[in-house]
Specification:
two-stranded parallel sheet; mainly alpha; 3 helices
Length: about 70
């Protein structure tokens, strides 16, 4: 619908939930106090060697896994 059309216009990449990504996120979720969706963000940041930009203090618990910058 209209929302997806708007998302397609943003300068973002939607990553697939591959088996590898699901298992990586599940491992992060099992070992750190983060939401499962946040665990996907951490797994993606690890895979892409990227920085997580967030205002969510929950990500403080994964700073040993990825670089986290608070906004």
């Amino acid at each position: 619908g209209e929302a997806l059309g708007l998302i397609d216009q943003l300068p973002i990449e939607i990553l697939p939930a591959t088996r590898e990504a699901v298992l990586a996120a599940a491992h992060i979720k099992a070992t750190h106090p983060v939401a499962y969706a946040d665990a996907f963000a951490v797994a993606a940041a690890q895979a892409l060697r990227a920085t997580v930009l967030t205002g969510d203090p929950e990500f403080d618990s994964v700073k040993q896994l990825v670089t986290v910058e608070r906004i």
